């Protein structure tokens, strides 16, 4: 689409049409660019060639294509494409299902147009031309200088010119919001783990400084710093002093005091031999210390298993979607007055 401003050639606007999403609207625009429809019943040429850009809204859009004022208009085909950036091409209308020949090009993101006006393409070339159209002096949004379409037509875009990945269909945006909500709900869902934080404490002193940890020797291969809340119910442990920290005991052991002490003789007393009970201990195993032996039993507590709380997950999703719905409603409500003042 070649543009002329105040009798001077300004350059060319090149658009990419989203024929996969809005095939009917794109076909209508193509026909008006090529003029294949000929003349209307009233004798108006059904072509954009020679038409004017009759409206320029600073910070909003430029509008043109007023060639057939008697047409009733076509239906709103799709609102899937969002007016999310500068250079979006859409069809102006006078109400629902009243799309005619007039089109507009956005000068900035105009999200309030979503679900009201049909966007069906985007500008891929002509940034400087659109800038010149935007800067044309106006009076009541009417350009003071004539901005005319001197020639127009269609052609196939090269892969380099195609810019489809940059447009943002509303469905894609909603899918991203749903994905973000699911991730947020998953992160917020309470999931517990049976990891033992005490086992990371390799020093006895640092273990005893933590009120929830004990330096123990259990019947299984579990020697060192452990949390008694996370020990299996069928496992018995005995408290071990820090003197056993460097011990090589890594398996369950049976403790006993020396079976016999050496005879003690003095000039005044006879030799006395002492012996300890050599019987095996009960299932609770104790480790010999230089002071005392204390049996430690795990404190009964509910086991912490790795679980997925489906109810919390679904509740999180519902909460996030509810917040999004409220924000969307408030956004549309706040933009309602702006939509009334800025009609195409």
UniProtKB/TrEMBL annotation:
Membrane topology designation: Single-pass type I membrane protein
Domain of life according to the entry: Eukaryota
Keywords for this protein: Glycoprotein, Isomerase, Membrane, Signal, Transmembrane, Transmembrane helix
Pfam families (alphabetical): MGC-24, Pro_isomerase
Location of the protein in the cell: Membrane
Key word Metal-binding present: no
Membrane-crossing segments per the record: 310-331
GO cellular component annotations of the record: cytoplasm; membrane
Positions of the PPIase cyclophilin-type domain: 1-154
Coarse class of the protein's main subcellular location: membrane
Region feature (Disordered): 254-288
InterPro entries: CD164_MGC24, Cyclophilin-like_dom_sf, Cyclophilin-type_PPIase_dom
Gene Ontology MF: a single term: peptidyl-prolyl cis-trans isomerase activity
Record-stated family: Belongs to the CD164 family.
Protein name: Putative peptidyl-prolyl cis-trans isomerase-like 6-like
Native organism taxonomy: Eukaryota, Metazoa, Chordata, Craniata, Vertebrata
């Amino acid at each position: 689409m070649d543009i002329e401003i105040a009798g001077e050639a300004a350059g060319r606007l090149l658009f990419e049409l989203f024929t996969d999403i809005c095939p009917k609207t794109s076909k209508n625009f193509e026909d008006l660019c090529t003029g294949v429809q000929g003349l209307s019943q009233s004798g108006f040429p059904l072509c954009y060639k020679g038409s004017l850009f009759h409206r320029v809204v600073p910070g909003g859009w430029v509008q043109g294509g007023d060639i057939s004022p008697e047409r009733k208009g076509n239906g709103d085909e799709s609102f899937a494409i969002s007016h999310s950036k500068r250079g979006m091409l859409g069809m102006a209308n006078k109400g629902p299902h009243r799309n005619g020949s007039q089109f507009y090009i956005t000068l900035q993101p105009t999200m309030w147009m979503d679900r009201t006006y049909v966007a069906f393409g985007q500008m891929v070339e002509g940034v400087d031309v659109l800038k010149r159209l935007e800067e044309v002096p106006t009076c009541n949004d009417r350009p003071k200088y004539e901005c005319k379409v001197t020639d127009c037509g269609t052609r196939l875009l090269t892969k380099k010119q195609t810019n489809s990945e940059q447009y943002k269909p509303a469905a894609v945006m909603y899918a991203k919001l749903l994905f973000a909500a699911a991730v947020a709900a998953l992160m917020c869902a309470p999931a517990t783990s049976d990891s033992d934080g005490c086992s990371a404490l390799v020093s006895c002193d640092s273990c005893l400084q933590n009120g929830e940890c004990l330096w123990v020797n259990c019947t299984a291969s579990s020697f060192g710093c452990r949390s008694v809340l996370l020990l299996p119910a069928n496992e018995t442990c005995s408290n071990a002093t820090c003197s056993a920290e460097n011990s090589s005991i890594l398996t369950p052991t049976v403790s006993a005091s020396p079976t016999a002490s050496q005879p003690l003789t003095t000039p005044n007393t006879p030799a006395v031999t002492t012996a300890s009970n050599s019987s095996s201990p009960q299932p609770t195993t104790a480790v010999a210390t230089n002071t005392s032996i204390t049996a430690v039993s795990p404190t009964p507590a509910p086991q912490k298993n790795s679980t997925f709380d489906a109810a919390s997950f679904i509740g999180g999703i519902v909460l996030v979607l509810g917040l999004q719905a409220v924000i969307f409603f408030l956004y549309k409500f706040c933009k309602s007055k702006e939509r009334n003042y800025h009609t195409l």
